[in-house]
Amino acid sequence: MESGKVKLHFPGWQKTILVTPGTSLEEALERAEIQIRFPCGGKGICGKCRIKIKGKVSAPSPAEQKHLCHLEQGWRLACQILIEGECRVQVHPLSLVSFPKILTSRISRTITTNPRIHKVHLSLPGPTLEDQVDDLSRVERSLGEQGISALASDLELIRKIPLFIRKADLRLTAVVSNGKLFEVEGGDTRGNSFGVAFDVGTTSIVGILVDLDTGQELAANGVLNPQISHGEDIVTRVSFVQSHPNGLKILQKEVIQAINQIIKSLSGKAKVKTDNIYEATFVGNTVMHHFLLGINPLNLAIYPYVPAIEKAVRLKASELGIAINQRGGLLIFPNVAAFVGGDTVGVILATSLFTRRDKKLRLAVDIGTNGEIILAQDGRIVCASSAAGPAFEGARISRGMRAEKGAIERVRLREGRVEVGVIAGGRPRGVCGSGLVDAVSELFREKIIDSSGRILFPPVKKIWNRRVIKREGSSGFLLASENESAGGFPIILTQNDIRELQLGKGAIRAGIQILLGKLGLQEERVDEVLLAGAFGSEIDPRSAQNIGLLPALSGAKVRSVGNAASLGAIMALLSQESWQEAQEISRNVEYVELAALSNFQSALAEGMRIGV
Ligand code: FES
Prior knowledge:
The protein has 17 helices and 27 strands. With 612 residues, the protein is of the alpha/beta class. One of its GO terms (molecular function) is iron-sulfur cluster binding.
């Protein structure tokens, strides 16, 4: 054993590593490549990085004393611990990172392909004393003979051509984009033109490989956004950038590595060479956009919330080190405002909200930590971002978790019984956003809570006596007892959890009401509700309407559109017109800053009521 080092055992992973005494457990976990959640970025605020540790470690910190009523059972906060001697570590099931489902679009639409990338097969006449035209002009002349005027895009290509065309025996394929010759390939490679569309989300990054000629989706893959180890929400990550000298570089590197990992797996799956991937499009919220480009997002988080850039950005792949053809193009979607990014532009593009010319009023909602709300009618689009808080993503909920394996996603109360639907089956580990909405809807229906959200103790119906409990002076509802849950902890919906949900739902509902007011319309006029994003795909629309998260509209169709933002990114890959439209959308959307409106607080208070 290296002198001075101590052993750290992770029996659940059958791993042991050596660390120097004084090493933080957070760092040791990273070195052991064991991923656990650090939702607040290791600040000791969220209380969700629970582990059990036996051995010599630092004494419980004040943050642990505050958070862990289970200290006596040996549970600690991983972010607060320093290793002092040999230890064994056990991770709480709720603290484990597991990968969320890969979400793709649920919209079926035909995209007319008109990509920027064209391939032209050329057989060049060999140079002679009579035809001493230079090599580059020879290629350009041949292209011209086929009706294509294109100039070499860069010096690297000019350097490549002389040797290359001779090696290829003067038979080659020219790759052209927007009047620029940007690649030459040996032989006839027509039919091998690919692009990849990315949705760079705060939680996960999804990439979809597309055949640029046929429009066919060849493979999709996603990974957890590795930045999550610095905090689950974007505010924590922005503060990480401000508090670490290399914070921005670290976050940019991590997101690019994840993107490249996806490209590698997609090209392997579809048996496509990465050199034949010529374009990548990116949608994401404004903060992720800034991280990807290596732009400090500080001003997005402070008043008056100004992005560094809103318009679309086009780069060469080599400028960011994205692992497609290095002379290929990167098309980064434009933003609308600090809290409305290219992902919202992607949703508007994919759902045709901008181009539909009819009198129907359509409401699109993408709920995350920020809820993006879009109202569209006859080409006019108003949109806002409402600070819904993290409740819908399972954060700040005592037994909350993301929508991943082991999360309660459905709740039904029947005659004194609690029936729960758990993602991937088995015993529940916690409750995710859709489970929370379902649970509160059912509690309201069963009169266990009133419209103010207060848990009525004792319950009106005696059949719930066993489930409505009081602990330390506060009421709660027992969703799963220690015998019913994984990990032996009861899953209790507390009064605070319900308040967190009310804050989130109030913010969304207030945003909807204010946008309707902006158009001078009442909610009864809404013809269609589109639910975008992961939460929108999982939520039961009836429960959302029952608690008043969405207006209860008898005539309106409610439709989940899945990851519509990624479809927007695919459309921009396949169609030049769609890319132009994305830019027009960002210029034409009317953004409403809710925080600046005097009536927001009263709308929020009204929106927080359950069932209204
Ligand atoms: S308390 Fe440890 S990550 Fe939040």
